[in-house]
Design brief:
The protein has two helices and six strands, in the order E-E-E-H-E-E-E-H. With 90 residues, the protein is an alpha+beta fold. Strand 5 and strand 6 form a beta hairpin. The longest helix has 13 residues.
């Protein structure tokens, strides 16, 4: 099983990811709100601003502080998962 680092040492199984999105749109905000109500939210942003919303095949919603593009690159294998700037939040 392949895992991707989504910041602060947190990992997600790459084969379980259905979608990644910016948290700015209204539909995604509603999705996050419903997931919170139903107990399906996993907040892995470690107190930082949420920059990415990850939806899994088990309908869990994961919040990350890393930018969407960086997580997409890691899913596509374009970025080194063991780089020293994994937790560089900008």
């Amino acid at each position: 099983m392949l895992f991707i680092n989504i910041g602060f040492g947190n990992m997600v199984a790459a084969n379980r990811v259905v979608a990644i999105s910016s948290p700015e749109s209204s539909p995604v905000k509603r999705l996050v709100a419903v997931a919170k109500e139903e107990g399906r939210i996993i907040d892995l942003s470690c107190g930082h601003k949420t920059k990415t919303v990850i939806i899994t095949d088990s309908e869990h919603v994961i919040l990350s502080a890393l930018p969407t593009e960086r997580i997409a690159d890691r899913l596509n294998g374009l970025s080194d998962n063991n780089s020293s700037d994994d937790d560089d939040i900008t």
